[in-house]
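Saturday, quiet lab. Running sequence design on the structure tokens for the scaffold JK sent over.
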């Protein structure tokens, strides 16, 4: 029997359209391996919500590979050392993996590639970052021309089927998934996660099938948080339980504005990776210098700012649409996309708190927390990014709530206000705020004037 190949898994927990599996299976027996390496990511180790999802995804993936006669090997510690140890233990001829672009994974790939045969494959994006360039060969910085250029190339390929896989003659030792304690015990804060989500490749395809049937209405319904109008594919894509190539081909034949809008959002995911490929630390610092000297209210130095940040995190700002979103996030690990923008804008421009505080909160509380998407989206809202909304364009949460018909959404997540009529639930008078629901942390007009004044001061 040929020497086995190790498939090093990270955010690519699927068998179909998995180029690393296909390459390894063509060369010999396959040993799939996941290494939990918190130290390498440093401050970017997985947040609590992501760890919850990872447990479910690994459990589902383990069941899937068992159907093909394989075992999922789990190891914990330095990923390079653990993989090299497994190469020695198993006599593997080398390692196959899907290429990742987060800075800590790029460093790990370089280190591992110097010490063993590491074959890296593209497969987590529609096109590998660096492929789509301007006429002069430079990477795009702005989304719209990037999207146009990528659309001219798509689709690059068809999805790959699950390959014929051979098991090795002997298996190395493995950690038990339960021993990693990825899910909370006492207290168990994830009860709402279990009601909202089912991780895994099979669940990802079921969700995709459901969305394809609703794609025609996507353009009209995606901004309305009270209806099931979004795809809810983001965590499945984030963990690689389904590939964007599979999603793209599933939409074949869909020619309406809804499907086209969704295709643009799948391309945005590629665009975000294109950004961190150019600027690896993009989620850590503002692209535009003016925001590095901006007069942010610092929660570490100001008790009032700290209190505002806590109120935002807990859904106690006094703005129903913002509070509904933040409570949905805490309860389910996910927030409706339109509400994400409203809540992010509120933290940055109403409370005048640095976008990085929000980015890190989302990193810890989102099941779909993605290094590139999270950083790019927060910098877009703040106006600090390479391609972003202008800071003076300040979302009005009260009118946004009414415009996008969020009354039912507010009733679900802010039950204190459930008895109010649609006409008043978006902005209830102080006398109509019930069951301890708070007054506004700051008036919208005053917040807008303060934000614009701070922006003018920062620009000099």
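Result came back. Writing it out in full:
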């Amino acid at each position: 029997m040929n020497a086995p190949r190790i498939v090093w898994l990270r955010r690519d927990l699927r068998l179909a359209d998995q180029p690393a599996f296909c390459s390894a299976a063509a060369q010999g027996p396959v040993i799939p391996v996941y290494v939990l390496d918190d130290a390498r990511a440093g401050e970017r180790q997985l947040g609590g919500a992501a760890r919850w999802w990872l447990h479910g995804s690994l459990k589902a993936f383990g069941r899937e590979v068992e159907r093909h006669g394989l075992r999922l090997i789990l190891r914990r510690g330095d990923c390079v050392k653990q993989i090299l140890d497994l190469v020695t233990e198993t006599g593997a001829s080398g390692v196959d993996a899907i290429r990742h672009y987060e800075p800590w994974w790029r460093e790990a790939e370089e280190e591992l590639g110097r010490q063993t045969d590491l074959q890296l494959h593209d497969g987590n994006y529609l096109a590998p970052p660096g492929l789509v360039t301007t006429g002069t060969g430079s990477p795009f910085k702005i989304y719209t021309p990037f999207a146009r250029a990528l659309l001219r190339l798509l689709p690059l390929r068809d999805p790959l089927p699950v390959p014929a896989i051979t098991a090795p003659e002997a298996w190395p030792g493995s950690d038990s998934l339960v021993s990693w304690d990825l899910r909370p015990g006492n207290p168990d804060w994830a009860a709402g996660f279990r009601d909202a989500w089912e991780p895994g490749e099979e669940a990802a395809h079921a969700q995709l099938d459901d969305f394809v049937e609703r794609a025609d209405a996507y353009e009209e319904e995606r901004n309305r948080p009270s209806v099931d109008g979004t795809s809810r594919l983001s965590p499945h894509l984030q963990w690689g339980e389904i590939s964007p190539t599979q999603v793209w081909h599933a939409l074949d034949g869909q020619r309406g504005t809804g499907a086209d809008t969704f295709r643009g959002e799948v391309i945005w995911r590629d665009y975000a990776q294109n950004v961190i490929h150019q600027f690896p630390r993009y989620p850590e610092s503002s692209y535009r210098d003016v925001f590095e000297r901006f007069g942010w209210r610092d929660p570490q130095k100001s008790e009032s700012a700290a209190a505002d940040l806590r109120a935002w995190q807990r859904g106690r700002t006094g703005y129903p649409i913002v509070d509904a979103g933040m409570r949905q996030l805490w309860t389910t690990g996910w927030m409706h996309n339109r509400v994400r923008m409203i809540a992010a804008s509120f933290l940055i421009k109403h409370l005048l708190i640095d976008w990085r505080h929000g980015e890190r909160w989302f990193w810890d509380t989102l099941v779909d927390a993605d290094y590139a998407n999270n950083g790019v989206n927060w910098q877009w809202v703040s106006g600090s990014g390479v391609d972003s909304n202008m800071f003076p364009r300040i979302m009005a949460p009260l009118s946004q709530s009414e415009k996008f018909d969020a009354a039912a959404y507010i009733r679900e997540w802010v039950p204190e206000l459930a008895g109010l009529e649609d006409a008043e639930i978006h902005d209830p008078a102080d006398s109509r705020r019930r069951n301890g629901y708070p007054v506004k942390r700051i008036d919208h007009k005053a917040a807008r004037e303060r934000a614009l004044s701070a922006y003018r001061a920062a620009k000099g």
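Notes for JK: The domain at 125-158+200-278 is CATH 1.25.40.80 (Serine Threonine Protein Phosphatase 5, Tetratricopeptide repeat). The chain has three domains: 1-123, 125-158+200-278, 289-459. Ask whether to fix the surface positions before the next round.
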